[in-house]
């Protein structure tokens, strides 16, 4: 019987989740585990095309509901094409963002209601939920500083969400903390202010304990 496990990484931009996801994937591979890494939005060829539309700073005309539907379009493709098949094989799947991101960015940040987000999740993800979610928390100032520093290095092609107001990003962080309080059995809150090595250690301990 397949024993695949689905782990997601969440947090504000600049929290280090992508770096930590890759570190955890490598750690598991060294132990001989088959690991699949994916990302939302993205993860598939169709998803990457949707990602360009979503994150292009030139696309200021996107309405919140359009944005919401595009995120779930990418996610539906990822679930069908990458995530479900990998879990059925017994692989460990690590995903950089999933529906929790939509609940806080579009739900809390854009003011779209959580029931709407959850109904679209039901349609797009067909009941798939993470076994464990690693939420790396950093303060608002650090998040914005790191995100803008990153964009200055790699270009502004994906900065549309980063360019939102501090008030928007504050709502996002509050939304994440509320989710962590609501689902402590699934979401592990990690202090992103610690050193990179310490964050890595805390994540490994959480995964060993819960998965």
Describe the structure.
It contains 8 helices and 5 strands. It is an alpha/beta fold and 211 residues long. It has a single domain (5-210), classed as P-loop containing nucleotide triphosphate hydrolases (Rossmann fold). A 5-stranded parallel β-sheet has the order 2-3-1-4-5, sandwiched between helices. The longest helix is centred in the middle third of the chain and has 26 residues, at 64-89. The radius of gyration is 16 Å and the shape is globular. The relative contact order is 0.20. The mean pLDDT is 94.
Shape: globular
Q: What is the CATH architecture annotation?
A: 3-Layer(aba) Sandwich
Kindly state the percentage of residues in helix.
Answer: 55-70%
Give unreliable regions as ranges: none
CATH superfamily: P-loop containing nucleotide triphosphate hydrolases
CATH class reads: Alpha Beta
Number of strands: 5
CATH topology: Rossmann fold
Distance between the termini: 17 Å
Helix-strand category: alpha/beta
Radius of gyration, whole Å: 16 Å
Mean pLDDT score, rounded? 94
- The number of domains is 1
SSE pattern, N- to C-terminal: EHEHHEHHEHHEH
Taking the sheet with the most strands, its summary is: 5 strands, parallel
Number of helices: 8
Spatial strand order of the main sheet: 2-3-1-4-5
| Strand composition percent | 5-15%
Indicate the topology:
Blueprint: E1 5-10, H1 17-30, E2 35-39, H2 45-55, H3 64-89, E3 92-96, H4 99-109, H5 114-125, E4 132-137, H6 140-154, H7 166-182, E5 187-191, H8 196-210
Parallel strand pairs: 1-3, 1-4, 2-3, 4-5
Helix pairs in contact: 2-3, 3-5, 4-5, 4-7
